[in-house]
Automatic annotation (TrEMBL), chain A:
Domain Lipoyl-binding: 2-78
Species for this entry: Lutibaculum baratangense AMV1
Top-level class of the enzyme under EC nomenclature: transferase
Subunit details: Forms a 24-polypeptide structural core with octahedral symmetry.
Cofactor(s) the protein requires to work: (R)-lipoate
Domain Peripheral subunit-binding (PSBD): start-end pairs: 175-212
Protein name: Acetyltransferase component of pyruvate dehydrogenase complex
Protein role: The pyruvate dehydrogenase complex catalyzes the overall conversion of pyruvate to acetyl-CoA and CO(2). It contains multiple copies of three enzymatic components: pyruvate dehydrogenase (E1), dihydrolipoamide acetyltransferase (E2) and lipoamide dehydrogenase (E3).
Entry keyword set: Acyltransferase, Lipoyl, Pyruvate, Transferase
Organism classification: Bacteria, Pseudomonadati, Pseudomonadota, Alphaproteobacteria, Hyphomicrobiales
Superkingdom: Bacteria
Cofactor-binding details, from the entry: Binds 1 lipoyl cofactor covalently.
TrEMBL record, chain B:
Positions that bind FAD: 52, 318, 324-327
Protein name: Dihydrolipoyl dehydrogenase
Further comment: The active site is a redox-active disulfide bond.
Primary enzyme class: oxidoreductase
Keyword NAD carried by entry: yes
E.C. code: 1.8.1.4
Family (UniProt): Belongs to the class-I pyridine nucleotide-disulfide oxidoreductase family.
Reaction(s) catalysed by this chain's protein: N(6)-[(R)-dihydrolipoyl]-L-lysyl-[protein] + NAD(+) = N(6)-[(R)-lipoyl]-L-lysyl-[protein] + NADH + H(+)
Source organism superkingdom: Bacteria
Species this protein is from: Lutibaculum baratangense AMV1
PANTHER family named in the record: DIHYDROLIPOYL DEHYDROGENASE, DISULFIDE OXIDOREDUCTASE
Positions of disulphide bridges: 43-48
GO cellular component: cytoplasm
Length: 487, 472
């Protein structure tokens, strides 16, 4: 029996991912541990290693396919002694017509495949393989054991219309009652944007009726986007009350290019929109005197021992101090070191501090775990590694998921003051501005001090104003008396 | 002294109360139920269940009497009223014991007595007689959540009050010593019609008087009219748009003055009268006034989760308002305790509660009647399928009846289903499930119904609503 290669879950919460690239081709010999494909989740690209050995018999999900469900069969591996004929009648719904299977070339002539498809459809058999060979990039054929996609060159579209199972634009099955589906269709509501209140999140009539027209998205527009979009296209809510087409109509044709959303853009849009709508946030701003910290930083960096490659063993940034200060502040105010859930606040034992890292056309927030226990040099080196891998999109999900707070530093752009959006499960985020020399009044006289403005956004569900102020105060104390971070 | 404080105390062990208590216990809540008469309440002891036992006897009797219709011979068919009643009481007794067993199995304490709610979650119980083995006695108990599930009792019309001798409520009608010669049934709701059907089948000359223009007033007009025709064919006399103005008792008979809607009066002499003019909630003597629990027209005011205006006090079932049906009470109780336990719940959708009447022919329905659907401004499609077009119905010798379905013309939502005929009370759940799954006509059309069954008529009725029925 050929071995199924399944879409792996790269993190416990992953439900689907994009099959970015196949690194092996059909017929290749594979050993356990070989890297065979690259999978892209909403934020990271990960390599998939083979678990078994054998010959890659058949790739079922072509590269560039978006939103492949975890545990879907993506390829078939032939064990020793098996040849391609073993793929016949094997699961996955691929039973091609006779005469086709003996030459399992990657590219069969479309005409021949179409004939084969017609023939097998006549016999009431699945057309999955034939459909794929006809050059169709869609993977709907995998599901077409019911033969419903017969007779068309685009099985996905055919099945989506004829079949009882609706899917959203990204191919994810939407669970909705038949009545909800029908009302949604009439109202022009895109079900993928509707939250279900029924059993197991099933979308019911009441959910569709409650769906705000503004949040809803006409089906036609979604379909248009789907057709036009690259692999990673899934519908995103457009501007309130406006369809994609309405927005496009406001700009002269040819005056813009469409850049389809990638997974990261969609994640940023979805999560931060949800936070803005759902989380009550208040902001606290404080000025921190930085001269002592800058001096300490210089002293420490000047005295760094030589490490690998004749480079200093560490080179602390101001931001490294901010991470450490925030971690220690959370330890000092443990009530603020919490995450919100519907039933409880999770009071964390360690301070996991996220750091916003800008990457080309996107953003990551890798986490420094238990930052309160780590020395500045450990934090600094860890941060450097995380930031580099973030830019290469090589972070593992567990490296950017979780955390209780985050630091966003736009000081290097000369930003004096800004507010940042909390990224749950974080309960706060600290927005750090530029450090600059400012005149300050000290002992009744004007003096010049290096000052930095920090603004803490707090989830009011988790902490109230006074606690937020205490947290920010503790942070300021550590920053202004930086020696206290060293002990 | 045992620990007398509970998470949940349910007042009343009727179908709403005991189910609520068991569900509460399942959810890990320390639970007690207070009862002073019967585990299982009216439903199990004086309502739903024992009447079904009586009606089964009358049904079998009816078949015996019509044996020749099936090619059988049965001569000298007769009955023993006391044996019929004994069987009915036996069924109730068995099930009531079963409730006791279920409560025990789920570690729900039974407190025997009459409960009064006091401030601060206190429940004071005054001991009552005939406590079952293992029940706790009177005393002061404490509950975080008190759920009132005290049910309802027969309504008495002024001047026409039941006396328990000649003018019966369902209590007396359930245990006749002998069959009366003639009977007047006041009210043609489910209770009135079921007793009328039972006694009529047993040979009693029965007249039903209904103040509204149709019998079974909550049912679809067309269905009620089919039922009426069948009942009248069997010999039942029915007067609608009429009311009993006066009942004069004299030496073993009652003379009823019946007025029609134009005020014309006539008299009717009968041996017994059954008053079946509805039920009223048992809200008295519970201490609700002292606690400030809001009531309205004999009903405790609650939200969709059984919560009253007083924190920690809840009400479910008949006492919390119509429809006064056991299955509605059970479901409300479950929603109530699941909400207490912090589960994600939804209020009961009262439009999806089925109703069944076990006369011959049976009547069953769920959702909006045709009239109500039109009144609600819905554009509708109506499907009908008669029993005469169904093979199984013919084979059963039950060719009379109708299955009617009502769809929203725009969305295909199943708004209502109404049936009259043999065994329809066992069929209606199919449409209940369909409504709860929010099917449209399409899924119902796609569903394969087994042949030969009465259920095929449900399919055909749906098809008919869209002009596609095969067998008519």
């Amino acid at each position: 029996m050929p071995i199924d290669i399944l879409m792996p879950a790269l993190s416990p919460t992953m439900e689907k991912g994009n099959l970015a690239k196949w690194l092996v081709k059909e017929g290749d010999q594979i050993s356990a541990g070989d890297v065979i494909a690259e999978i892209e989740t909403d934020k990271a690209t990960m390599e998939v290693e083979a678990v078994d050995e054998g010959t890659l018999g058949k790739i079922l999900v072509p590269e560039g396919t978006a939103d492949v469900a975890v545990n879907e069969v993506i390829a078939k591996l032939l064990a020793e002694g098996e040849d391609e004929s073993a793929l016949q009648g094997d699961g996955g719904g691929s039973k091609p017509a006779e005469g086709d299977v003996k030459t399992p070339k990657a590219e069969a002539e479309p005409k021949k495949a179409a004939q084969a498809e017609a023939a097998s459809a006549e016999e009431g058999k699945s057309t999955a393989k034939a459909g794929e060979k006809a050059g169709s990039p869609q993977r709907e054929g995998l599901h077409s054991g019911n033969g419903k996609s017969a007779g068309g060159g685009a099985p996905r579209e055919a099945t989506a219309k004829a079949g009882p199972v609706a899917k959203d634009g990204s191919g994810q099955r939407v669970f909705a009652s038949p009545l909800a589906r029908r009302i949604a269709k009439e109202k022009g509501v895109d079900l993928s944007g509707v939250e279900g209140s029924g059993p197991h999140g099933r979308i019911l009539k009441r959910d569709v009726e409650a769906a705000k027209p503004g949040a809803a998205k006409p089906v036609e527009a979604a379909a248009g986007q789907k057709a036009a979009a690259a692999p990673a296209a899934g519908p995103m809510p457009a501007a309130p009350s406006m369809s994609d087409d309405q927005i496009k109509a406001m700009f002269p044709k040819g005056s813009f290019e469409e850049k389809p959303h990638d997974g990261m853009r969609r994640t940023i849009a979805r999560r931060l929109t949800a936070v803005t709508q759902e989380v009550p946030v208040f902001y606290l701003t404080v000025d921190c005197r930085l001269d002592a910290l800058l001096k300490l930083r210089k002293d420490l960096n000047d005295s760094a021992p030589v490490g690998e490659g004749d480079k200093p063993a560490y080179k602390l940034s101001v931001n490294d101090f901010m991470i450490k200060a925030m971690a220690l502040a959370l330890m000092a105010k443990p009530m603020a070191n919490a995450s919100w859930t519907g039933g409880a606040r999770l009071m964390h034992k360690g301070a996991d501090v996220g750091v916003a890292v800008a990457v080309p056309d996107g953003l990551f927030t890798p986490i420094i775990r238990d930052a309160q226990t780590k020395t500045l040099s450990v934090i600094s080196n860890e941060m450097r590694d995380l930031a580099k891998r973030a830019r290469d999109k090589k972070l593992k999900p567990e490296e950017y998921q979780g955390g209780v707070t985050a630091i966003s530093n736009l000081g290097m752009y000369g930003i004096k003051h800004f507010t940042a959006i909390i990224n749950p499960p974080h309960a706060s985020i600290l927005a750090i501005g530029a450090s600059e020399q400012r005149p300050v009044v000290k002992d009744g006289a004007v003096a010049v001090e290096t000052t930095m403005t920090a603004t803490l956004a707090c989830d009011h569900r988790v902490m109230d104003g006074a606690l937020g102020a205490e947290l920010l105060g503790a942070f300021k104390d550590y920053v202004e008396k930086p020696m206290s971070m060293l002990v | 002294m045992a620990d007398t404080s509970y998470d949940v105390i349910v007042i009343g062990a009727g179908p709403g109360g005991y189910v609520t208590a068991i569900r509460a216990a399942q959810l890990g809540l320390k639970t007690a139920v207070v009862e002073n008469k019967h585990l299982g309440g009216i439903c199990l002891n004086w309502g739903c269940i024992p009447t079904k036992a009586l009606l089964r006897s009358s049904e079998v009797y009816h078949y015996f009497k019509h044996a020749e219709k099936y090619g059988l011979k049965a001569d000298n068919v007769s009955f023993d009223t006391s044996a019929i009643v004994k069987r009915s009481r036996g069924v109730s007794g068995q099930l009531s014991q079963g409730v006791g067993f279920l409560l025990k199995k789920n570690k729900v304490d039974v407190i025997w007595g009459k409960a009064t709610l006091k401030k601060g979650g206190k429940v004071s119980v005054e001991a009552a007689e005939n406590a079952p083995k293992g029940a706790l006695g009177g005393g002061e108990y404490q509950a975080k959540h008190t759920i009132v599930a005290t049910g309802a009792r027969p309504r008495a019309l002024p001047g026409l009050e039941p006396d328990g001798k000649d003018i019966w409520t369902y209590f007396e009608a359930m245990v006749p010593e002998k069959m009366p010669k003639s009977m007047l049934v006041m009210g043609s709701g489910a209770i009135g019609i079921e007793f009328a059907s039972f006694y009529q089948t047993m040979g009693v000359d029965v007249t039903v008087v209904e103040i509204l223009p149709q019998i079974l007033p909550v049912e679809d007009e067309e269905i009620a009219s089919v039922a009426r025709k069948q009942l009248e064919k069997q010999g039942l006399k029915i007067m609608t748009g009429a009311k009993v103005a006066k009942l004069d008792r004299k030496g073993g008979s009652v003379t009823a003055t019946i007025e029609d809607d134009e005020g014309k009066a006539q008299t009717l002499e009968v041996e017994k009268v059954i008053s079946a003019v509805g039920v009223v909630g048992n809200i008295e003597g519970l201490g609700l006034e002292d606690l400030g629990v809001k009531t309205e027209r004999g009903i405790i005011s609650v939200d969709g989760y059984g919560r009253t205006n007083v924190e920690g006090v809840y009400a479910i079932g008949d006492v919390a308002g119509p429809p006064m049906l056991a299955h509605k009470a059970e479901h409300e109780g479950v929603v109530c305790v699941e909400t207490i336990a912090g589960q994600h719940t939804h209020p009961l959708d009262k439009l999806k509660i089925p109703g069944c009447t076990y006369c011959h022919p049976q009547v069953a329905s769920v959702g909006l009647t045709e009239k109500k659907a039109k009144e609600a401004g819905r554009e509708i499609k109506v499907g009908r399928f008669p029993f005469i077009g169904n093979g199984k119905a013919i084979a059963l010798g039950e060719p009379d009846g109708l299955v009617k379905t009502i769809f929203d013309a725009k969305t295909g939502e199943l708004l209502g289903a109404h049936m009259v005929g043999a065994e329809v009370t066992e069929l209606i759940q199919g449409f209940v499930v369909a409504m709860n799954c929010e099917t449209t006509e399409e899924e119902l059309m796609h569903a394969v119904f087994p042949h030969p069954t009465l259920s095929e008529m449900m399919h055909e009725s749906v098809l008919n609503a869209y002009g596609r029925a095969i067998h008519i």
